């Protein structure tokens, strides 16, 4: 049994600033759960180009509002609190948080993220602040 509190992650190496986002890594590869879990803030007014070629990610929005654009078909998917999107096809996409406020997302990755992938921003390419 393990209990992780956000307050204990803040300001540690598991509190990762990606520029357009800040990811608080609650469960990591080393926890041997088979997935990772992050509490991620997407900063208001940003657009981030993301393409996780080696991971599947489910993202559950719990605060804020924005949209995802899947680049294979230019489809726009509105996202708000209570909406989950699953990148079940390694979808290349743009994630936009609207100007009104930050978005807060619970992100689950399979396979779990390692520190290296996060620090190298593997598959994550910010295009606009
Ligand atoms: C929603 C999303 O994927 N944001 C990018 C950061 C990612 N959640 C991470 O590396 O923790």
Automatic annotation (TrEMBL):
Its EC number is 4.2.1.108. Keywords: Lyase. It catalyses: (2S)-4-acetamido-2-aminobutanoate = L-ectoine + H2O. SUPFAM superfamilies: RmlC-like cupins (SSF51182). Transmembrane segments: none annotated. InterPro entries: Ectoine_synth (IPR010462), RmlC-like_jellyroll (IPR014710), RmlC_Cupin_sf (IPR011051). Pfam families: Ectoine_synth. It comes from the Bacteria. Pathway: Amine and polyamine biosynthesis; ectoine biosynthesis; L-ectoine from L-aspartate 4-semialdehyde: step 3/3. HAMAP family: Ectoine_synth. Catalyzes the circularization of gamma-N-acetyl-alpha,gamma-diaminobutyric acid (ADABA) to ectoine (1,4,5,6-tetrahydro-2-methyl-4-pyrimidine carboxylic acid), which is an excellent osmoprotectant. PANTHER family: L-ECTOINE SYNTHASE (PTHR39289:SF1), PTHR39289. Belongs to the ectoine synthase family. This is L-ectoine synthase. The lineage of its organism: Bacteria, Bacillati, Bacillota, Bacilli, Bacillales. The gene is ectC.
């Amino acid at each position: 049994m393990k209990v992780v509190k956000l307050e204990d992650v803040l300001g540690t190496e598991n509190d990762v600033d990606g520029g357009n986002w800040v990811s608080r890594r609650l469960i990591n590869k080393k926890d041997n759960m088979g997935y990772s879990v992050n509490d991620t803030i997407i900063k208001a007014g940003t657009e981030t180009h993301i393409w996780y070629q080696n991971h599947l990610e489910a993202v559950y929005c719990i605060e804020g509002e924005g949209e995802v654009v899947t680049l294979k078909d230019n489809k726009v998917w509105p996202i708000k609190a209570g909406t989950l999107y699953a990148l079940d096809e390694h979808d290349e996409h743009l994630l936009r948080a609207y100007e009104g406020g930050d978005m807060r997302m619970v992100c689950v990755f399979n396979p779990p993220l390692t520190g290296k992938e996060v620090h190298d921003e593997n598959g994550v390419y910010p295009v606009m602040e």
